[in-house]
Specification:
Layout (H helix, E strand, L loop, with lengths): L1 E6 L3 H6 L3 H13 L4 H8 L7 H9 L4 E8 L2 E7 L2 E5 L10 H24 L23 H20 L19
Parallel strand pairs: 1-4
Antiparallel strand pairs: 2-3
Helix pairs in contact: 2-5
């Protein structure tokens, strides 16, 4: 995989990501790929047989690609990856024609965030306090001025960069989902 960004803008790609399972597959492949179906299934807690259809759909819209093979126990396994590590949706949010599908994707993200949080509470390494906490949530309604909103957006972009660039193969994965919307 290269480090370039892939902007997800096509309608068929966006529609494909309405599924929380496909979102989860793309996220795990982008973060850890290339991976086999078995690796992805283990990472997201599904049976491999339940993922082939989703992988095929993601490949049809160019969000997942074959990335070679490997031999495990004398059997050949296909490996899959995303076109780049940075799979981005932000620009699609600005396209009026995508408004409905983007709302559907956000709903899928919220469902997946609920699953991530519920599973995360059960992990023995879950920490809800301290500098190394990996379990938490936050919701706040506020009225930031334009300068503070610009700073908030800059910090959110910085968090994204840290999540993309600071991979430690020994560390546990964390899922971070944020949704921001004007309320009035």
């Amino acid at each position: 995989m290269d480090k370039d960004e892939t902007w997800i803008l096509r309608s068929d790609q966006l529609q494909c990501l309405v599924s929380p399972v496909r979102l989860d597959i793309v996220d795990h492949l982008a973060a850890r790929g290339p991976l086999s179906i078995k690796d992805v299934a283990r990472a997201i807690g599904k049976r491999p047989s339940a993922l082939y259809h989703h992988i095929d759909q993601l490949m049809e819209v160019d969000l997942v690609q074959e990335a070679g093979t490997r031999i495990v126990n004398r059997k050949q396994e296909k490996l899959y990856s995303t076109p780049s590590r940075r799979m981005r949706l932000k620009r699609a949010l600005s396209v009026p024609e995508h408004q409905e599908v983007m709302a559907d994707i956000v709903a899928a993200l919220a469902r997946q965030a609920d699953r991530d949080f519920s599973q995360g509470q059960k992990v023995c390494s879950a920490l809800a306090e301290g500098d190394h906490r990996n379990l938490g949530f936050f919701r706040l309604v506020a009225k930031p001025g334009s300068g503070r909103l610009a700073r908030i957006n800059m910090l959110l972009d910085e968090i994204g960069e840290l999540m993309w660039d600071e991979a430690d193969e020994e560390a546990s994965s964390i899922a971070l989902t944020w949704i921001m919307a004007p309320t009035a």
